[in-house]
């Protein structure tokens, strides 16, 4: 396995993990917290599902 294959597998796993997190939090009507331009931003998980 070369570095490119490993990188693609890691990115694929991260995308799957994020999708599962969004689905889980939207069922609980929760928010996710991000940093944008150095500021804290809260976004409803169900808004990210779209």
TrEMBL record:
It comes from the Bacteria. This is DUF2292 domain-containing protein.
